[in-house]
Amino acid sequence: MIGMADHKRILAAALEWRGTKMALATVTQTWRSAPCPVGTHMLVREGGDFVGSVSGGCVEGDILTLANEVIDGAPHALRHYGVANTQAWEAGLPCGGDIAVLVQPVSDAGFAAVLFEEITQAQAAGQTLLIGTDLESGLSRVVADAGDAAFVNLYAPPKRLLIIGAVEIAASLSSIAGQLGISVTVIDPRAHFLTQARFPGVALDDRWPDVAVAANAPDSRTAVVTLSHDPKIDDPALIAALASPAAYIGALGSRASHSARRVRLIDAGVDAAGFARVEGPAGVSINSVNASEIALSIAAAVVRSFNDGLR
Hints:
It is a single chain. This protein is α/β, with parallel strands linked by helices. The chain folds into 2 domains: about 1-155, no CATH class; about 160-305, Rossmann fold, CATH 3.40.50.720. It contains 10 helices and 15 strands. The protein has helices spanning about 10-15, 60-70, 85-90, 115-125, 170-180, 210-215, 230-240, 255-265, 270-275, 290-305; strands spanning about 1-5, 20-30, 40-45, 50, 75-80, 100-105, 130-135, 140-145, 150-155, 160-165, 185, 205, 220-225, 250, 280. Strands 12-11-10-13-14-15 form a 6-stranded parallel β-sheet, with helices on both faces. Helix 5 (about 170-180) links the parallel strand 10 and strand 11 (about 185). Helix 5 crosses helix 10 (about 290-305) and helix 6 (about 210-215) runs parallel beside helix 7. The two termini are about 15 Å apart. About 40% of the residues are buried.
């Protein structure tokens, strides 16, 4: 079985906690309405600090106990939790789902600490790494394909969001996306809008939008959203995004402005079927009334596009 989840916080904690004893819990199998996908991690270090979740809060207390035992020298443990299991009820798993969780030491006898560094390096290079685990021995290693181990976890580069227009909605959207583990780049040729003070910790690109979008090479793990309300900025970005396999393309504005946008882009050479990929107004309808709520609706649409077909 192969798993894929968001590992950004786990990797950051693993690198921060280097040199201390740790244990790694991983969801290796799910049935029915399990709250976390296969591949989800929870990292525990000596002393009880932890990051991540394997059940949305249902069984973390039991996992912490197992992890501390593993940190103290106990062998790896593979535990099943389900509604028919008395221990699952005691641990608090009444949601109707079943999960299997592997708890390994972060060591050469389990999930070697160097693997975290290899994953981080691969992601920084835009590469995907497969880590296979022998569930009987609890040993993990880099593998070539999903058939090389009983359980394989896929560590892909972070999903990306390209925001065109360094406006107030962009500030809220970049913050929300960051909390979702999505890597954000804000694009705007207007230097007085595009500042680190307004977008702390976010990648900024002051090139003209069509150049910037093309250079960032949107793929199936990338969303592109235009927010500037200025056709000179938004339209070139949309044309560039439509030439890519971006997972989501959205444009802020009313239905009337979207109709006008359609005319402009078709006049510029975009075919009608291609333009249909642009969601306008961007976002999930939640009756948004301010910048933060509009950002939330757009973030929801981005997540929807990334998760489409996964469940």
